[in-house]
Write a structure and sequence with these properties.
With about 160 residues, the protein is an all-alpha fold. The protein is built from seven helices and no strands. Helix 2 (about 30-40) crosses helix 3 (about 45-55). The termini are far apart.
């Protein structure tokens, strides 16, 4: 039964072992790939692919070889079902964006899916102020009523007392 894909550390370890086995003139001794493959429990063709991907250059002291880490990161696995999730969430009213449960009910997207997209950064938290803003006409009416009450009360002033 074949072994699953090598991790990045195992790939680098295989490359280091190959570099240790390499002859001073830059050639690989016979059976080196098979020997390293046996240590890691993979086929020798896998080790050979890692070696060729490293493209070792003995003459370059700055960069001896290329990166051999896996290219599967971020591109493997199930493809996303909801691609425009940020647009869907923007269409939901602010009242329904207070929790994952209410967002899930408003968008018909499972709560766990919304949480996964949130963790990936597809959308960010947004909160509303605890005290809602008063509309301007109501605020003006309230202020005028308060000023009228202050003027009507005897012995009161609209100025704030200074701090001594």
């Amino acid at each position: 039964m074949p072994k699953p894909n090598l991790t990045d550390d195992e790939r680098n370890g295989a490359l280091h072992q190959l570099l240790a086995l390499m002859a001073p003139d830059g050639t690989m001794p016979r059976g080196a790939f098979a020997q390293v493959a046996e240590r890691f429990g993979v086929a020798r063709h896998t080790i050979r692919r890692i070696w060729h991907r490293a493209s070792v250059d003995v003459t370059n002291p700055r960069q001896l070889c290329q990166d051999v880490s896996s290219r599967q990161k971020g591109r493997s696995g199930r493809k996303p079902k909801h691609t425009s999730i940020a647009d869907v969430i923007k269409d939901v009213p602010m009242v329904h964006r207070t929790s994952f449960a209410s967002m899930a009910a408003a968008t018909n997207i499972p709560k766990s899916t919304l949480h996964a997209y949130f963790k990936r950064g597809a959308f960010v938290k947004s909160s509303t102020p605890a005290k809602r803003l008063v509309p301007v006409p109501k605020k003006v009416a309230r202020d005028t009523m308060a000023n009228d009450a202050n003027k009507a009360a005897p012995g009161t002033t609209t100025e704030s007392p200074g701090v001594l």
